[in-house]
Amino acid sequence: MSDDRKRIVLVGASGVFGQRLAAMIARWSDVMLVLAARDLVRLDAVAAELAKTGPAATIEVAQLDRLNPVGLSALGAWAVVDAAGPFQGQDHAFPRAVLAARAHYVDLADARDFVAGFEAALDGQARVDQRWAITGASSTPALSHAALDAMTAGWTRIDRIEAAISPGARAPRGLSVIRAILGWAGAPVRVFEKGRWTIRSGWSEPRRTPFPGLGRRWTSLAETPDLDLLPARFHPRRDAIFRAGLELPILHLGLWALSLLRRSRLASTLEPLAVLLGEMAGWVAPLGSDRGGMVVSVEGRDANGVRRLARWSLVAEAAAGPHTPVAPAAATLRALLDGRLGEPHATPCVGLVDLDAIVRELGDLPIRTRLESQRPEIPGLFPRLLGDTWDTQPSSVRQVHAGVTPVTLRGKARARGASGLPALVRRLQGLPPTGRHATAVTITPTADGERWVRRFGVRTFASSITADRHDPWTFEETAGVLTFRFGAAPYPGGFSWTFEGWRLGPIPLPRAWAPRIRARTFARDGQDGTDIYRFRVLVAHPWLGVIFGYAGRLS
């Protein structure tokens, strides 16, 4: 055992978030990780699972109750991390005890009142003891602020901020999280909206929020520390909103309906329903997915005074979502170990670690992040959607989709598709039969998009591509009565169309019923060295097989 290893005590190590943070810290060779909670049996099980991974850190267990932390000093902690929660309704006695034990303190608090009073309660003691006291090292406020710092560097003005989070229905959920939500659902919430402070109700104003890679999910106003910290740190002129949602509409809208009991003063709190609602969520979880996400959007003016929209998003697959809230705590601890935080004091976890450091802690997990920026006032649908990456597109792609003048391209395309019903669909839509065909495509700019007319031999397939009125980051393609919604993402040598949702006329259709769509627009060098415009489209369905697919080159 190395004497220079730092002892990190992780309180709540047997919980949903604690276990995941323990796995991150266990990879560090310069620490001794003490797993702490009230139940030693569960702690031993967590330690046994960690041992199977071959941890670089030394692992110990210790019984500790954060509400009565007898024996904390005896643990000899260099830092204590509180991942237990809930923090709603808690005072600052435990972080005071940690500082009194001469240890640094970090927590995952998402409770607005706890974070709001943290600095005033602890800063004097932290500075005297020369120990850090850091609160909110989680999705809110640490991750949301890190994303905003990355997006708005150099901006001269911020008009609006909105963040939203939505876990997958099948992702693990702790009882403390459910209690926390029920603690403010239906309660008065102070929010900065339309340039002034006003009162709204928690879990109110349900609407469908776009989550890149996940489609649209129901979200409502959430009570988080960001409602105070976003206006204080970024000074938006109009709004600073944080929303949260449940993947399954029956759960999200059901909780909204329950919140009306508190709004109408028929109930003082919904917290007694936590166990029952947690069980009900488990019953219906198989109807949802294990995919969760987070999105942070901002509007304002960049360094040149040009109007900008920027968006950072995260998609977690395979129930990896609960790792996201603990990544800021891991990044903060790592910075603390490396001596990168500066002079100790008490503070919310904003501006301490950057976005790259947080995302780095998620690097070995099925989690994807993306940062986008656009200038909404430039002409052309795709130049606007692709934003700063538009100038990197090949010249032929930029010429075709500049959105200024009509363009007609001619060449060859190869089509394929299954027989039976898919063949009938292709014929009704004007799509070609299997084989190679002379092809002409006319793309005509419109007021809000493009009109495409494709001619494959003697057949014609037309569609309209327009900006999504409800989401500046997506576009819609309408052919007949069906409309498909896509995002545009950079792709080697061009851009891809990322399917986001579909509808029949005005009626949204379940994403699970949708065909699988892959579409690419790109360019490659021709024999004379010039880049040749190319396209590749594949539409398949699990029940029907390949409905249609075509690929070709045009000039």
UniProtKB/TrEMBL annotation:
Domain of life: Bacteria
PANTHER family, alphabetized: CARBOXYNORSPERMIDINE SYNTHASE (PTHR43796)
Name used for this protein in its record: Saccharopine dehydrogenase-like NADP-dependent oxidoreductase
Domain Saccharopine dehydrogenase NADP binding positions: 8-109
InterPro entries (alphabetical): DUF4166, NAD(P)-bd_dom_sf, Sacchrp_dh_NADP-bd
Domain DUF4166 intervals: 397-554
Pfam families: DUF4166 (PF13761), Sacchrp_dh_NADP (PF03435)
Organism annotation: Caulobacter rhizosphaerae
